[in-house]
Amino acid sequence: MLPRATKNAWSQVRRSSSSTSRHLAADMPIVQDSVSPLAALPTGVLLRSIFINAITSRPYLLRPSLWVLSKLSNPGRFMPSIDNNILLRSILKPTFYKQFCAGETRVETQATMKHMKEMGFRGTILTYAKEIVFDHHANSQHGLGVEAAEGKETQWCESIEAWRAGTANTVELLGEGDQLAVKLTGAGSLVTKAFSEGKLPPQQMMDALDEICTKCRGRKARILVDAESQHFQWGIMLVAVHLMSKYNTEGYALIYNTYQAYLKSTPATLAKHLAAATDQKFTLGLKVVRGAYLASDERCLIHDTKQETDDAYNYIAQGALKQQIGEFGAPNGRPFPSVDLLLASHNKESVVAAHHLHQQRLKAKLPTVPVKFAQLQGMSDEVSFGLLQLKGADHAAPEVYKCSTWGTVGECLAYLVRRAMENRDAASRTMEEYMALKAEARRRLRSYF
Question: What is any Pfam family matched here (predicted)?
């Protein structure tokens, strides 16, 4: 638990973070030139985005789409796998799959990643699609492409080996500037059993992780340990901290852990990890997201309102940039450890305020931390391209990444369901994005004629 002084500091800063964020964002608009951010979006992608957002911004169209995706992600006796259903696959792949996923093959995936860099992004954050999602409401776990049955305690696990091989193949796809995101539950039931008990996974999995870390370090690619279902999260964080203490040396974060701002427990968790980074002298890789398991996790674990989640996100982001979170960096508090920051967010206000604060501190020669930004492929393109148009004191754009997933259509279904649910739970943002996309289409039509 947090000390009382830390709790009080958290409460005070959280109350002020929303107004601070709005003030910073107002001082620096997201677009600094007259070119529309979406002007960089290829016409084919623009038209597909309009089609997808026309569905996800309308509840009466999104609900049946979600139902279909959920059924497809759990095939049964009368529901064949999507990879074996030619008709459904021919509908899903060129629409939802292509909007949010990088590709099924090495060639398709690398073509998508090359396209991202051509549009101006620093690189792609790529993840292998296999994962297991625990549904708290149904008290069950599911995921295509993974061995979901309970395994036996053996010296060798085929599911862990399949995860190792698939993740190693993903590393081989990475080029300069790209990063690897890992979903550890994709290694199967022996691993998820350990995670659900808050333990480290079998040694075979730890050996596989050491291999992946070594390969990524050789390619100068960072590793982002994704947040997953809370049923597994405490074990996942145990692995992440272990890897950070081993590999995040000499002020460089090879490994990032993901912190979900919508969880009430996040400030206490972050304080614990800041203490570990201080005591063990490693760099904390701090990736901040709002959270993506609202539909499956226990609701009581999550903030009651969106505003509370926004305040929590801004508190962590701005606190890291100021090098003061709770007692860490506070007067008469503990020293602030070495931190590398990655802000993964679709919220325009949050990312612009963070960029502006970072530039303010650099200009004033005040202490701060390195910061990067990321949005998901197929979502919030106006935010992504708007960030690329912002220039810092050195006239360079901030480092912006697109996060994407690769794997077969069937393997990516659990991911696609979460993306659709995220759009459902952020209806106002999705509608704003839809209107911005249509405005860009109208602009192009006018310029053509």
Answer: Pro_dh
